[in-house]
């Protein structure tokens, strides 16, 4: 089995629609794909409706969190999307995205970059607006050559010149909320140092004690030495280990299925979840 548990669609900051994502996942030879858009489940229904035969969909979301001033992401799988407490927190995070993006545009204008809200809104479309959409605008304007080049201290990285904070969930609260909604939690790309400061391993140990299920180890932002270190940490803490592409369509160079999760780990994730269940494809439109 080939299992990719971290993918984005146009419901947040990917470039594939949810329907295109599942069709492309099947074409890439995946058996299981997770749709984990930022702080939203809005793309799930479209993905389910288009799900090809032979492909299983894991519903999820990537939650925006902050620990001790450090931004981090928590993948949540197979939770009840209508559970009130988790739904309210996701909406609080999502609703803060527009004023935050507008404030970043003001900072960029002050730095001499002629980006506009209309441009960013066009790029975001129906998705939850975020930094990748602003980064795409900077690419369009020729300010940076790629989206990744916008995530530096020069521009949009944490504490960068145009960075603006948004509401982000405490990770311990995120774990509690996801568990309360019957879901499973995975700390996404925990050692992606090129994105900015990373959470110390002591804090990951605290999260494990609070109920964290796994850490995402095999990821494009982790080199071989980092993966080995994280595997050792996971073993010490009794955490599962996942691997995922973090696919964003054409917004990133990584391909669907470039990094995958072991089938036994996937089986354990599905066994732990009680809020929702993987959806087998029956041949979508």
Q: How is the topology of this model organized?
A:
Elements (H helix, E strand, L loop, with lengths): L2 E5 L10 H10 L4 E4 L8 H6 L6 E12 L2 E8 L6 H12 L1 H14 L6 H8 L6 H10 L30 H10 L3 E4 L13 H9 L4 E5 L5 H14 L2 E4 L19 H10 L6 E2 L5
Helix pairs in contact: 5-6
Kindly state the number of beta strands: 8
Strand content: 15-25%
- Determine the fraction of residues in helical runs and give it as a percent range: 25-40%
Mean pLDDT: 95
For the CA atoms, what is the radius of gyration?
18 Å
Contiguous uncertain segments of 5+ residues: none
Task: Put the structure in a nutshell.
36% of the residues lie in helices and 15% in strands. The protein has 10 helices and 8 strands.
What can you see in these coordinates?
Helix 1 (18-27) links the parallel strand 1 and strand 2. The protein has 285 residues and is an alpha/beta fold. Strands 1, 2, 3, 4, 5, 6, 7 and 8 form an eight-stranded mixed beta sheet that branches. 36% of the residues lie in helices and 15% in strands. It contains ten helices and eight strands. It is globular. It has helices spanning 18-27, 44-49, 84-95, 97-110, 117-124, 131-140, 171-180, 201-209, 224-237, 263-272, and strands at residues 3-7, 32-35, 56-67, 70-77, 184-187, 214-218, 240-243, 279-280.
């Amino acid at each position: 089995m080939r299992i990719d548990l971290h993918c984005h669609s146009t419901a947040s900051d990917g470039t594939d629609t949810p329907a295109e994502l599942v069709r492309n996942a099947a074409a890439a030879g995946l058996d299981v794909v997770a749709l984990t858009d930022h702080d939203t489940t809005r793309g799930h229904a479209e993905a389910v409706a288009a799900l090809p035969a032979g492909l299983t969909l894991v519903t999820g979301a990537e939650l925006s969190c902050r620990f001790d001033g450090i931004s981090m992401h928590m993948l949540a799988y197979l939770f009840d999307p209508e559970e009130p407490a988790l739904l309210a927190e996701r909406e609080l995070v999502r609703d803060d995205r527009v004023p935050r993006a507008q404030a970043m545009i003001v900072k960029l204008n002050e730095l001499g970059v002629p980006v506009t809200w209309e441009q960013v809104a066009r790029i975001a479309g129906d998705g939850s607006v975020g930094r990748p959409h602003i980064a795409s605008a900077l690419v369009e304007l020729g300010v940076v050559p790629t989206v990744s080049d916008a995530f530096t201290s020069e521009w949009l990285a944490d504490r960068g010149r145009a960075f603006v904070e948004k509401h982000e969930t405490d990770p311990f609260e995120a774990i509690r909320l996801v568990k309360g909604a019957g879901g499973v939690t995975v700390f996404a790309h925990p050692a992606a140092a090129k994105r900015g400061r990373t959470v110390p391993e002591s804090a990951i140990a605290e999260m494990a004690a609070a109920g964290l299920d796994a850490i995402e180890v095999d990821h494009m932002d982790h080199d071989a030495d980092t993966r080995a270190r994280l595997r050792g940490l996971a073993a010490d803490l009794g955490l599962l280990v996942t691997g995922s592409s973090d696919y964003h369509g054409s917004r990133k160079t990584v391909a669907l299925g470039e990094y995958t999760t072991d089938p036994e780990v996937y089986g354990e994730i599905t066994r732990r979840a009680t809020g929702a269940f993987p959806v087998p494809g029956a041949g979508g439109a």
